[in-house]
Amino acid sequence: MSGATQGLDVAPAVDPGRYAMGGRPPRAALRPASAQQAAEALRVAARDRLAVVPWGGGVGLAHDDGAPRYDLALDLTGLDAIVEYDPEDLTLTAQCGVTVAALRDTVAARGQELPLEAGRAARATLGGTLAANASGARRLRFGAPRDRILGARFALGDGTAARSGGKVVKNVAGYGLHRLLCGSRGGLGVILEASLKLMPAPEVRRALVFGADAAALRDPARWSRLPRLEPAALTVLGAAAATVAGLEVGAPFAIVAGLEDERVWVERQEAAVRTALGEPRARLEEAAVATLWQALADLEDRGGATLTLTTAANTPAALAALIDQPEAAGLVFHAPAGRLLLGAPPERAPALVRDLAAAGFTLIEARGAGAAVAGFPPPAGIRALRERIRAALDPGATMALGERWVAAIA
């Protein structure tokens, strides 16, 4: 190491070329072997005024435009231990670098489910999934990661070790800073270890796949009964997105209805869905359904300019203002959670956001299209609050993505 990166011998160095953002690698990269090494690396970086980006599997960061300052990548994949697993209490504590796939396999062996949906789960880490607050088709059923996290150990921008929450469900000690870190994308500090509440695996897991045209999506009566059935998922995909997910339905749109519960209730749900939507093009069971959920989560990681929007409307009819637009072919809409993922050329993004706002959608993230939607900042009061939070947790502005969190749309 040379220049301003001298002194970063507190953790093993690795090739910085692996951690490029926006085509630009950092000046140095470290792979700590312990939480203590990670915290010490942050302390040294803060002392030397280096801008740091924490890395897990690089799932989201690989598509990131980068930060104005990016000196040090902190690779946390070496912190990959499961610290404590209590199947009886449905809780698990693990270090931030363990992959989502490894955690799923661990709890599945005991008939339990990890309620986190992350794109590229074999590579995505627990810390990265929490930092992105990532979710998929079953967001309403599971909640977002910030709803599942019980507590965390983390390091602040100056290397201070901290913790909040605990390892049990009934814990009200202190402020919920662990939830604040979910969605901060590494802009406020580094999650080192987290405790999660799990769920029992469902008795039956099933998915019905239908084809639909624009007229069917626009018909509110067709969808009115489905929210009351509380399906695990009800996702609309444009034809291009459906193809990427491995679904060929021979129609402009694919509809995926996921049913996960006790067998008797799933049978009743399926009968009602068939009454409303007709005969499915495909009927998937168990492992095939889990594969489909992962394919839908992977659509969050397609790269390119992507808009994420939300709406209080929770049926496919909410898409009426969008389905004749060219971008409709790539849309992914998780209807129960009112969450829309939409690929859009940066030059089209502002008009799309305004048209969808008139239809009840609110923009919550723009990836790769940030400059084009710069006219949609957070309200002044929210930005001011975020600036205060950032100043408290990272007073030296060590975390390179902190300003982006402050300026985030939602």
CATH class assignment of the largest domain: Alpha Beta
Strand tally, please? 18
Biggest sheet layout: 8 strands, antiparallel
Instruction: Using the 3D structure, state the CATH architecture of the largest domain.
Output: 3-Layer(aba) Sandwich
Give Rg in angstroms: 22 Å
Fraction of residues in H or I helices? 25-40%
Beta-strand percent range: 15-25%
CATH-defined topology of the largest domain:
Vanillyl-alcohol Oxidase, Chain A, domain 3
CATH homology superfamily of the largest domain: FAD-linked oxidases, C-terminal domain
Mean pLDDT: 91
N-end to C-end Cα span: 38 Å
What does this entry look like structurally?
- The structure is a single chain.
- With 410 residues, the protein is an alpha+beta fold.
- It is built from 15 helices and 18 strands.
- The chain has helices at 35-47, 100-108, 126-132, 139-142, 145-148, 177-181, 214-218, 220-223, 226-229, 239-244, 263-277, 287-298, 349-358, 380-393, 402-406; strands spanning 28-30, 52-55, 72-75, 82-86, 91-95, 112-113, 149-156, 161-165, 189-197, 199-200, 204-212, 233-238, 253-261, 282-285, 306-311, 332-334, 339-343, 361-367.
- A hairpin with a 4-residue loop joins strand 16 and strand 17.
- The mean pLDDT is 91.
